[in-house]
Amino acid sequence: MRGKEDAVGAVRGEYASGTVARLVGVSQRQLGYWAITGVVGPSRVERRGRARRVFYSDRDLLCLALVQRLVGAGFSLDLVRGNLGCLAALPAEPEALGDCYLVADELGMELRRGLADAMRVISQGEMTVVCSVGKVARALEKRISREARGITA
Q1: Could you report the per-residue pLDDT of 129-145, keeping only the tens digit for each?
Q2: Which residue, of 3, 27, 54, 150, has the greatest Cβ tally within 10 A?
């Protein structure tokens, strides 16, 4: 049984596509494209007759925000899509995300635990970009909170 939707369209950690688009900073059309091309799709699809609603989980939201950051940093969508498997290693506990770093270069990306490990990889010249998963998660939490209170911008 589903709970009641709140102000941001969330039901027990589920978000409607319009909400996700605003939180991640992409268009709904971009979300749809990423879903049909296998980047990150919704966790749940609800069909009623011809109508269709999609819902993204907290984990989907985090993965989409990371994808948006990487694409915004200049990485090709093909490279990101081909390396999303490393995000499967993200811890389920939100508290543990603060110690996770996504390191990437033009050849691929890896998930590393601990800043020292991420910096070691960079100092060896293996990877060139570091993205703090915890920082992205905290930024999303702030956006979700602002959206729930009806604050835009």
Answers
A1: 888 999 999 999 999 98
A2: 54
